[in-house]
Fold Peptidoglycan-recognition protein LB isoform X1.
Amino acid sequence: MGDERSVSGSGSGSNCETLDAVTRQEEDEEQQQQQQQQHQKEQQQLSIICGYSQHMQPLAADGGAGGAAKSSQLLSRADWGARMPKEVNYFDGPAPYVIIHHSYIPAACSTTPDCMLSMRQMQDFHQVDRGWNDIGYSFGIGGDGLIYTGRGFNVVGAHAPKYNDKSVGIVLIGDWRTELPPTIMLRAAQDLIAFGVAQGYIDPSYKLLGHRQVRDTECPGGRLYQEISTWPHFTQLNKTVEVQPVANKV
Ligand SMILES: [Zn+2]
């Protein structure tokens, strides 16, 4: 579950299908140049985002999730029928944090069509009902074991206040308060993190957090939180609570 403070206006109008087909309003030359540069940057970034669809090597072999030695698959936004983002804002990588969420709603999905529907439902909720730019998360993990590109790497998310411009937000679709997500999902999440590190999107010394560590929420659910607290790079954040030494008290 996420957050997005500012609601932006109309976006750049780019999506995976129209990478080269974006037209610009008529502006004066200087503005046009600036916009062209911005536009080129957007195109570059979007081509990265849209180019994610691929099989990944089983990088998380040591990650403890076990299971068959099968690579996880990363699906693009187009694969699940995402709408265009209203606006895309980037931050410089690599991201120093990875933050794990559960969706709570929608519930766990087991087939790819259902998981794709869940992604669209989350996008609807965030983009339409809440008025955010896009689905809040960077990536979704389905019960089918597939990884779904949300906002993608190095795109400012809307999933954890103060961390949105420095983290990868991964939602494991389902309610994981008492149940542990299936191994195939845990493995996919670990593969995604390893992929992000290998590709330079995630800092090799990243800190892994559960959403509840940065906001008052039960997300990512008690059972899932317990699980990720055993994963490499899990970091206990020390709350900076000032405790007066006993000796100073009368
Ligand atoms: Zn959350």
